[in-house]
Design a protein that fits this description.
The chain has seven helices and four strands; from the N terminus they run αααβααβαββα. By secondary structure, the protein is α+β, with helices and mostly antiparallel strands. The protein has a single domain, classed as Glutaredoxin (3-Layer(aba) Sandwich). Strands 2-1-3-4 form a four-stranded mixed beta sheet, with helices on both faces. The longest helix is centred in the middle third of the chain and has 13 residues.
């Protein structure tokens, strides 16, 4: 009986390991992301989402954001900001106002919309989600990245 319980425990535990590895530090404040980006030199990645009701947003999260490939890329290259417009999740009034202001500033018309900024906060471009996998999505972000100056 003991070997069976150990095997059952291992089967239940193993799917959780990749999810834990791909957990990313999503911020909810653009000013905080800008401060971090000034130090790190990373791009700022804004995810305008309806995390608990938007089917495409949920798909993007599952098929791209929760993958080890995206996690590895994001840790090296992006300061992540979730700008969420949930139906059922609680948010403070100040968070709602900040999110509304960002939505107005970047003229967001639908979800998900991804806005990429340079490390100084200047807009580099806007992306949507076309159902691609993590590698193709990363390549689209990389096309927006500022060119490194050659010495």
């Amino acid at each position: 009986m003991k070997p069976f319980l150990i095997a059952l425990l291992l089967m239940c535990w193993s799917p959780l390991a990749p999810a834990a590895e791909s957990q990313l530090p999503w911020l909810t404040s653009l000013p905080e992301a800008k401060a971090k980006a000034k130090i790190s030199g990373k791009m700022i990645f804004l995810d305008f989402t309806g995390s608990d009701w938007c089917a495409v947003c949920i798909l993007l999260n599952k098929q791209v954001f929760q993958t080890p490939e995206f996690a590895a890329y994001a840790r090296e290259n992006l300061e992540l900001v979730e700008v969420d417009f949930p139906h059922d999740k609680e948010q403070t009034e100040s968070q709602k106002k900040a999110n509304d202001a960002l939505q107005d500033k970047y003229r967001i018309e639908y979800y998900p919309t991804l806005v990429v900024l340079n490390s100084n906060g200047r807009k580099l471009g806007t992306l949507n989600y076309n159902g691609e996998g993590p590698q193709a999505f990363i390549e689209r972000i990389q096309k927006l990245a500022p060119r490194k100056k050659k010495r």
